[in-house]
Amino acid sequence: MSEQGFSTKAIHAGWDPDERTGAVNVPIYASSTFAQDGVGGMRDGFEYARTGNPTRRVLEANIAAIEAGRFGRGFASGMAATDALLRATLRPGDHLVIPNDAYGGTFRLIDKVFTEWGITYSVAPVVDVEAIRAAITPATKLVWVETPTNPLLNVGDIAAVAEVAHAAGAKLVVDNTFATPYLQQPLTLGADAVVHSTTKYLGGHSDVVGGAIVTNDEQLDSDIAFLQNGAGAVPGPFDAYLTMRGIKTLAVRMDRHCDNAEKLVEFFSAHPKIEKVLYPGLADHPGHAVAAKQMRRFGGMISVQLTGGREAALDFCARTKVFTLAESLGGIESLIEHPGAMTHASTAGSLLEVPDNLVRLSVGIEDADDLLEDVRQALA
Ligand SMILES: *Cc1c(COP(=O)(O)O)cnc(C)c1O
Questions:
Q1: CATH code, 234
Q2: Residue 190: CB within 6 Å of ligand 1?
Q3: 231 and 293 in one domain?
Q4: Has 50 been annotated as catalytic?
Q5: Contact 212/94 with Cβ under 8 angstroms?
Q6: In the record, which positions carry N6-(pyridoxal phosphate)lysine (predicted)?
Q7: Residue 281 is part of which domain span?
Q8: Which of 193, 266, 340, 352 is buried deepest, with most CB atoms within 10 A?
């Protein structure tokens, strides 16, 4: 049988209709403990729900399948997944390389927490493979990549960075939250692990916080599983259920996010109050060729820089009506925010500081005409 398509896996992987009841959907197993048939006689491998829960296990198999990976692990948030992955791969004295516009929370965790435990890091532009090679030291164990980046929409060449990392004996991790596995599958491009904030596009409805790690590396997965149980930042069964419910429609949602984003990009590109549009789908975007090579389409995130500086950017954010002023991204509803004052405020004064005339839009799946009219009136 030929390999199944993306949506078939997204809808079916990990679960067949329940043998006993025929339930088409995976039940929410709200049970913290599991009866044993005699001491040590676990049924289906479950004993205690921090270690393993049947609903979570289905989510983990499903996410692994859609990321083209063998092993998936669910976490209570994207940051919990990031934390577990850093702890599974780094020891005191080790060094890692991170992009100059990494997710603010990832940077903060490394800069404020991991450095206290003897980890050092260097910042390199994700677009520049030679700069990443130059930032690697004999102590480098990990190269961290986000592509496209948040909020500057820079694009890194995953296959090229994987080669550079592996040549130095380091692992490559890709935060695939922005692209989602529908648009880009880092493991097939050479990454050793993928991390997700499932809070965003995978959940897709702004109603659940979660994270996940997928890898093909059995040792790495076993180290992650140890931390998942040992530190305990696990998602509850209802969270796992909601995330799976979102994943089933990921492909149709992503296509609509991309359609709407393309229309808005066209509008912004011709608008006099917009100084610059950052979107990898634009032919003159510096990362366009790489994005076209490794992504199916260019995603639902757009950033724009306004001609009127910080005031104009804050004003734009305040005046939209369909676009809600809020942090986060990847939901069905359109959101707008000012990264310098909101999501990326913690990067002020650091190497990861973002321009103050920058506005980030998470383009939802509403009717494109309503979104266009909304940004038109907000910029008028
Ligand atoms: C939101 C986000 C995270 C953190 O995930 P949480 O679920 O909020 O903990 C990490 N990386 C990226 C790219 C994100 O957008």
A1: 3.40.640.10
A2: no
A3: no
A4: yes
A5: no
A6: 200
A7: 251-379
A8: 193
Cis geometry, peptide bond prior to residue 148 (ω within 30 degrees of 0): yes
pLDDT band at residue 1 using 50, 70 and 90 as cut-offs:
low
Assess if residue 93 is contained within a domain.
yes
Flag whether pLDDT at 41 surpasses 90.
no
Residue 83 has pLDDT above 90, yes or no: yes
Domain contains 139: yes
User: Taking the complete model, does pTM exceed 0.85, yes or no?
Assistant: yes
Ligand 1 close to Cβ of residue 150 (< 6 A): yes
**Which is catalytic among the residues 175, 192, 221, 374?**
175
Of the residues 245, 267, 291, the one at which a domain ends: 245
Q: Are residues 240 and 255 in the same domain?
A: no
Closest residue (by CA) to atom 4 of ligand 1? 78
The Cα–Cα gap between 347 and 336 comes to 19
Q: Is 175 a catalytic residue?
A: yes
Catalytic residue of the set 103, 201, 241, 279: 103
Q: What Å distances lie between residue 128 and 139, 287, 288, 341, 348, CA to CA?
A: 20, 10, 14, 27, 23
Instruction: Note if 256 is an active site residue.
Output: no
Last residue of a domain, one of 245, 261, 288: 245
The verdict on 146 and 261 lying in the same domain is no
Distance 103 CA to ligand 1 centre (A): 7
Atom of ligand 1 nearest to the CA of 328: 1
Q: What is the mean pLDDT of residues 133-150?
A: 97
Most ligand 1 atoms within 8 A of CB, residue of 197, 202, 352 to mutate: 197
User: What total number of domains does the chain contain?
Assistant: 2
**233 within ligand 1 shell (Cβ under 6 A):** no
Q: Are residues 135 and 162 in the same domain?
A: yes
Same domain as 215, residue 309: no
Contacts of 128 (CB under 8 A, 6+ apart): none
Token representation of residue 216: 């093909």
1 inside domain: no
Arithmetic mean of pLDDT, 278-295? 98
Q: Is the pLDDT of residue 352 over 80?
A: no
Least confident of 210-219, 220-229, 235-244, 350-359: 350-359
The whole-number pLDDT of residue 285 equals 97
Q: Is the pLDDT of residue 347 over 80?
A: no
- The pLDDT tens digits of the residues spanning 246-270 come to 999 999 999 999 999 999 999 999 9
